[in-house]
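## retry 2 of 3
previous attempt timed out at serialization; input unchanged, resubmitting
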Amino acid sequence: MIDLRGTELEADERRWLESPLVGGVILFTRNFASVEQLRALCAELHAVRQPPLLVTVDHEGGRVQRFREPFFRLPPMRALGRLYDEDRDLALKSAAACGWLMAAELRSIGVDMSFAPCVDLDLGLAEVIGDRALHRDARVVGTLARRFAAGAKKAGMAATAKHFPTHAGAHSDSHTEFAVDNRALTDLDEDLKPYRDLMSNGLAAVMVSHVSFPAIDARPASLSGFWIKNYLRGELAFTGAVVSDDLSMVGAAVVGPVEVRVRLALEAGCDLVLLCNAPEKVPPVLESLKGYVNPAAQLRLTRLHGRGELDWEGLHASAEWRKASALVAPLCDRPKLKLEG
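## retry succeeded, writing output
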């Protein structure tokens, strides 16, 4: 899966997308100028070939929301966790509304999928996660994430849980540094509970992190046959799609150049690997993968395409949108909790 340089599809990008080795596109803020432009771009991307490419985005809420005005401003997921501690029933309704709002707006302009929710626990160690985490308690994370996923599903979008197995225990940011979590497998039980909860409810996809767990396997999880084949597919019996985090990130660079990273991620069991912000690397990666096919992965990825037809204007005029937005809007402006004493 590759990204695009700007708001229009360029000639070389179109050639790359025509390759059967490319399964989709991930969009960023730089690809968004207006609702009309974005809708046209998504339609053009889907028309490049058949079956259509998967069009995705990171649109969790809070500081990780690629499309801003006039898209609804989603709260950071931590706001849902704080609300849960005050009013459980309202938090569950708000989590479902967040998932539905996110998915409904994206589906109305043609985006198939957002890589959400983040189910890393709020351990206070990983700054890159921070307020993206729902809660410290794994049971609360699983409960809120299930409601969020149900809301997204109602709007025609599959959920992706991330960053498997966890990014919560690594101080370093795998975007810019080699990230390590020195805990043993038995110490990760709580971190893995949200995945078990979501999988019992039909989770469609998991995004694997570049965090390394040297007590378990020296390679980053995204490149680890133990984590993907043995644990995710074996121990957890996960049957959905497995997606790597962006392989241009420093956390994955420990094994060598990007061509090596891509090959290792696929051999480890990833169905789809992300390669972002490195257009110069796309041609050599495609050249290195000539002849590669994985029919099982292709089948899993087809299940991630968005369903149903929504219209941006009709959506925002609907009673359901007004009700959901009124429920979620107060969470965007909630003050940070202050400790007394």
